[in-house]
Model the fold of this input.
Amino acid sequence: MAAEKELKLLGFWISPFNIRCRIALAEKELEYEYKEENLAEKSELLLKSNPVHKKIPVLLHHGKPICESLIIVQYIDEVFPSRGKAPLLPSDPYARALARFWADFIDKKTFDCAIRLSRLRKGEEREETKKELTENLRTLEAVLGENKYFGGEDFGLVDIALVPFTSWFYSFESFADFSVEQEFPKLAAWGKRCLKRESVAQSLPDPKKVSEFISSRRKKLGVE
Ligand code: GS8
Done:
């Protein structure tokens, strides 16, 4: 299909934001060209496509750039509504608004907090950030409840927003001394359920590689 050949993703392997886009494209069974960026020396194409933030991921559709991972996932869902097993967003406007609210919460309250935590050494600030992260994960665990996925029976936007984070769970044990398995059994089980989907399994990096990457960054920052 011509439209599919016109999809190109600029990304970086470990980026949870990039992984979101890869999962959405895989859920829709779309073919695309993937270009791994060197973030220390960004390509002209990346700088031209995302001149505001100069960040990956960027999806190019017929050469037109779309930036910001959650916007990219929603764009893919809107442009290819009939592809894949089910839409990534529900049709009911209220349910859509809720999905967008929780995806935004994941960005602002979970990822941001985890990234900050990964840059801290042991001490008071680390304990406070860890507390903040665990409270936010507790909120998400309550939102998930007994559901299969965040939206109920169908895998969708909120799952895609959060699932790249599961490959960080292993690293928390080494740099933040806490076990997601023990503290958040529902989230841990949900993560394993998501991993059974081909789209997720083929997109998530090996948690040990993520841990090595985070550890080498911590060493560079002098916090390990
Ligand atoms: C975040 C993208 C981002 O942080 C999104 O797409 O959802 N809100 C955006 N991209 C990072 C890599 S992942 O840590 C990036 O491109 N960084 C390069 C830089 O800051 O120079």
Observations:
- The domain at 93-221 is CATH 1.20.1050.10 (Glutathione S-transferase Yfyf (Class Pi); Chain A, domain 2).
- Residues 12, 15, 17, 39, 54-57, 68-70 surround S-Hydroxy-Glutathione (CB under 6 Å).
